[in-house]
């Protein structure tokens, strides 16, 4: 009989072979990739999160025989599988490492670098879109720290107890797992939401990258290769300073018209007062401004780099914007010193080109393009002149009298004057284009003065050369937006960054009394139009009383809804009342005579509003009927 004072010897931990771990990884691969995707920081972007989640999961195999993790798998089919526990631990650890900031004096961990494999060249991959609940959960998770996000996902997706979650986090290297569990407890959501297609990186949509830019890069690469073969001796720049044509690639065309376009003496400079008497109200009447408009050496470098950007030049263009040489002598909008750079803005009737070079260096030149054909006076009111330390400076149109900063999330706050220099340059404005994580503010540029009236205009920076014009009202007759009307929907502008957006209109198409005496909700459709005319993005948003932000009920690309040609829209959302009842709510534009729901929820209502009892997670198809008998499908 064993003495009670001697503890029994613990059984040795089971060892896991590589083959056993591989079998567990293959069997549960979709779940492990979903786990990695949810733990990875949302700031990576959806395409990189997908590729990184697959890369981390595929690298989760141990290198040799290893001890099993002390925490068993918790779900049916995985209970007691030490191979799954080992692979899951590797996935959690590497996903947490991927969210760590890079340190200047330390080698980065492999998980912090962009994945080498898998790669899909020429395509952007992202999961299918979910509903309003999934979007709200994703926004709440983006505000958590990495360990807290991991704790929430292990608790909700893996259905692990807090004790087991704590041990997994400790084994993964988290220093304060208790604090992570407390922070994770601040997020409440149904466990089924984590199984939504919104968070499934194995069921993906594919879209092409910038096709025009890829084609231009291929042509430029072939031309550069030919230039190197023929004129290799001309690649070097003489001396230590700028050459006559700066960072431009060697010349390979001697066409007279092309050469004329590169002559700084032929650059068009509009007189300062031309805009006052011109019938046009666009960039063509902007005068040449800046302290370096007569610096022919600077203009020569800018024109040469535009025509033949060298290998060291950073080139960017909004989608659908060609980046080739100007067809003739362009118009000079600005040439001057801005912060630590020399900046030149040129306009060729279709595009604006921004050339920037450091004041005291021979490398680091940048060239940016934006398409601006057909710009109205509002859309040609400002151009980005410089970005530095998260701030942006604008060059404004000659008709602008005042520039101010307005935070859309603080509509009652007075505008903050930015000041205007004699050349029309604004003071620095904190840009929302670089904002990541929780949306706490959305700064816009408010301009006063114009050819069409004195009402202030709101423009927002979406990470491109030209800011987007914000409007409000019916698509057939939009008006200038106000901060109050955009306050609940400002954060949705993040979904249209870097898309070549020309303007975004917010239209309240319905107001609906909620069941169970819950007040009235607003239905708003936001439509982002692009400069190229294609790929508009439409969001139907649902704003409940007392809510700070609108929730995205439906989204679509390349849809005519909410546009000037088809001002009709129909959208629905599953909503839970304060009394605990679930409803399918739907609303259409005011010209609808009836709305019907089929599928998982059935019901019909006269007019443009529908409210039907439903079950959580139900799916329905919506159809609206117009006065003439035509039908409108629900926005997807």
Q: Helices, strands, pairings?
A:
Blueprint: E1 15-16, H1 18-27, H2 29-39, H3 46-58, E2 66-67, H4 82-98, E3 123-127, H5 132-142, H6 146-156, H7 162-171, H8 177-184, E4 204-208, H9 211-231, H10 256-261, H11 274-277, H12 296-307, E5 314-317, E6 331-338, E7 341-347, E8 351-358, E9 366-371, E10 382-388, E11 391-396, E12 402-407, E13 416-417, E14 429-430, E15 443-448, E16 457-460, E17 468-472, E18 479-480, H13 483-486, E19 501-513, E20 520-530, E21 537-543, E22 551-557, E23 570-576, E24 582-588, E25 592-599, E26 603-606, E27 609-613, E28 620-626, E29 631-633
Parallel strand pairs: 5-9, 17-19
Antiparallel strand pairs: 1-2, 3-4, 6-7, 7-8, 8-9, 10-11, 11-14, 12-13, 12-15, 15-16, 16-17, 17-18, 19-20, 20-21, 21-22, 23-24, 24-27, 25-26, 25-28, 28-29
Helix pairs in contact: 1-4, 2-3, 2-4, 6-7, 6-8
């Amino acid at each position: 009989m064993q003495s009670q004072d001697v503890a029994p010897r613990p059984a040795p931990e089971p060892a896991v072979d590589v083959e056993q771990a591989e079998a567990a990884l293959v069997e549960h691969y979709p779940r492990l990739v979903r786990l990695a995707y949810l733990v990875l920081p949302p700031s990576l972007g959806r395409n990189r999160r997908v590729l990184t989640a697959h890369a981390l999961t595929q690298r989760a195999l141990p290198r040799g025989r290893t001890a099993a993790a002390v925490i068993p798998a918790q779900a049916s089919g995985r209970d007691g599988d030490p191979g799954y526990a080992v692979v899951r631990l590797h996935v959690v650890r590497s996903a947490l490492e991927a969210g760590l900031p890079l340190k200047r004096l330390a080698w980065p961990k492999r998980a912090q670098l962009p994945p080498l494999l898998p790669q899909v060249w020429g395509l952007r991959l992202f999961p299918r879109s979910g509903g309003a609940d999934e979007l709200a959960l994703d926004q709440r998770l983006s505000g958590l720290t990495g360990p807290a996000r991991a704790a929430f996902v292990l608790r909700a997706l893996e259905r692990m107890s807090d004790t087991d979650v704590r041990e997994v986090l400790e084994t993964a290297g988290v220093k304060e797992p208790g604090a992570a569990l407390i922070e994770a407890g601040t997020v409440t959501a149904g466990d089924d939401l984590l199984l939504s297609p919104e968070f499934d990186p194995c069921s993906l949509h594919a879209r092409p990258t910038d096709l025009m830019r890829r084609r231009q890069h291929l042509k430029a690469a072939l031309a550069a290769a030919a230039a190197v073969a023929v004129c290799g001796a001309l690649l070097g720049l003489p001396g230590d300073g700028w050459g006559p044509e700066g960072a431009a690639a060697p010349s390979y065309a001697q066409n007279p018209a092309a050469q004329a376009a590169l002559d700084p003496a032929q650059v068009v400079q509009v007189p300062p007062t031309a805009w006052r008497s011109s019938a046009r109200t666009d960039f063509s009447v902007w005068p040449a401004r800046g302290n370096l408009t007569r610096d022919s050496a600077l203009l020569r470098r800018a024109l040469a780099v535009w025509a033949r950007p060298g290998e060291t030049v950073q080139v960017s263009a909004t989608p659908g914007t060609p980046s080739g040489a100007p067809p003739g002598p362009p118009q000079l909008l600005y040439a001057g010193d801005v912060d630590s750079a020399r900046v030149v803005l040129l306009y060729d009737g279709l595009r604006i080109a921004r050339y920037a070079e450091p004041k005291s260096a021979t490398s680091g030149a940048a060239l940016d393009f934006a398409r601006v054909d057909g710009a109205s006076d509002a859309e040609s009111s400002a151009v980005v002149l410089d970005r530095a330390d998260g701030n942006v400076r604008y060059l404004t149109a000659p008709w602008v009298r005042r520039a101010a900063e307005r935070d859309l999330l603080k509509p009652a706050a007075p505008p903050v004057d930015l000041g205007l220099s004699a050349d029309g340059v604004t003071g620095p404005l904190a840009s929302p284009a670089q904002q990541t994580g929780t949306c706490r503010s959305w700064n816009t540029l408010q301009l006063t003065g114009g050819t069409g009236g004195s009402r202030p205009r709101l423009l927002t920076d979406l990470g491109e050369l030209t800011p987007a014009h914000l409007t409000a009202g019916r698509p057939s007759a939009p008006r200038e937006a106000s901060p109050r009307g955009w306050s609940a929907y400002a954060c949705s502008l993040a979904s249209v960054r870097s898309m070549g957006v020309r303007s975004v209109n917010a239209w309240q198409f319905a107001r609906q009394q909620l069941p169970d005496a819950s007040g009235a909700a607003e239905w708003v459709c936001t439509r982002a139009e692009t400069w190229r005319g294609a790929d508009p993005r439409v969001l139907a948003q649902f704003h409940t009383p007392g809510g700070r932000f609108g929730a995205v009920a439906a989204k679509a690309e390349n849809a005519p809804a909410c546009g000037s040609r088809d001002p009709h829209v129909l959208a629905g959302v599953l909503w839970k009342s304060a009394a605990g009842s679930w409803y399918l709510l739907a609303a259409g534009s005011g010209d609808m005579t009836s709305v019907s729901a089929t599928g998982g929820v059935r019901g019909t209502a006269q007019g443009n509003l529908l409210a039907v009892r439903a079950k959580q997670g139900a799916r329905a198809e919506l159809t609206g009927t117009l006065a003439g008998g035509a039908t409108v499908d629900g926005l997807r």
